[in-house]
Amino acid sequence: MNIALYSLVHDDATLRIVSRILAFFTDKKAVIQIEKKLSTHFPKIAVSSFDSHLDIDSKTTVFFAVGGDGTVLRALNYVRESKIPLIGINTGRLGFLATVQPNEIETCLSDIVSKNYSTEERSVLEIKTNPPQPELETFSLALNEVSVARENTTSMVTIHTKVNGAYLNVYWADGLVVATPTGSTGYSLSSGGPIIAPESKSLVLTPIAPHNLNARPLVVADDVEIELHVEGRGDSHLVSLDTRLFSIPMNTTIHIKKAVCPIVFIRPNNHNFFDTLRNKLLWGQDKRN
Question: What letter does residue 109 receive in the DSSP assignment?
Fold first, then answer.
């Protein structure tokens, strides 16, 4: 068995969990790779390290992301189009993506070894720009969302929006989020967007603080291409792909569509999306329910 381990945060609690995972798979004689910075905390363990997606062993069975949802999102940079199954171990707060809790680790690891789990594919967004922006072309995928927003100004931006080449709307707003079903519980939800079940074949466009109150979130099929063209008083605006933020010139045309290759997540058999949703959003906590 081949595994890879990654963690963005290297605090004591996270390192203890990483140590437990290492001990478990060392005992199972697994081939282990650890992200380069993380490996410096375990100098006595004879494992190989990786620093980019090119270093990941193609035979990797499971990629562990230990941390919060942000860590899982950053893990996308390593797994990319490889379809290596990814699982998040939660040491953060909310945990919509990192669903395995510390007290479940040993059971989860045993289930992975015995292949007692399910996998699910999550849609990924791909972005292209005209004229091309080199910093975006290097790695143009997002698991949660692509968003555009104003930069260095309190003024709204004007976002011309098309779907499959057909005019949709001009949003006067602080920005616009284009989210996958996975990302519907993130920035889009905070901006008033709907929650979408992960297996849904859809995307959601959610304006951020729109000037017109009748500008509402819109759910569209996930096989469309969305075109954004941002205008404003400044020379540039922001584009974010999950946790990565870029500044690009105004009047750049942005094309967003579903990428060909999804991300594969491991889901323990005792987990499901609705349990996670209910627990994280505290549904049913009101005693009247």
Answer: H
Kindly report, residue by residue over 99-132, the tens digit of the pLDDT: 899 999 999 999 999 999 999 999 999 999 999 9
Backbone angles phi, psi at 237, to 5 degrees: -140, 170
**Four-way CATH pick for 2-122+262-280: 3.40.50.360, 3.20.20.300, 3.40.50.10330, 1.10.8.60:** 3.40.50.10330
Return the DSSP state at 262: P
In sequence order, the 6+-apart residues with CB closer than 8 A to the CB of 21 are 3, 5, 64, 66, 89, 105, 109
pLDDT, the chain, mean: 93
Per-residue pLDDT tens digits for 200-259: 999 999 999 999 889 999 999 999 999 999 999 999 999 999 999 999 999 999 999 999
The length of the chain is 289
Sign of CA dihedral 38, 113, 141, 183: negative
C-alpha to C-alpha distance for 155 and 7, rounded to whole angstroms: 38
Asked whether 181 and 200 are in contact (CB, 8 A), the reply is: yes
Residue carrying structure tokens 């004007």: 158
> Residue 79: is it exposed, middle or buried by C-beta count within 10 angstroms (0-12/13-18/19+)?
buried
Among residues 27, 57, 69, 174, the one annotated as catalytic is: 69
Helix axes 105-113, 12-27, angle to 10 degrees: 30
69 flagged as catalytic: yes
- At 23-52, the pLDDT tens digits run 999 999 999 999 999 999 998 887 899 999
For the chain, the domains span 2-122+262-280, 125-258
Q: Are 106 and 78 in contact (CB under 8 A)?
A: no
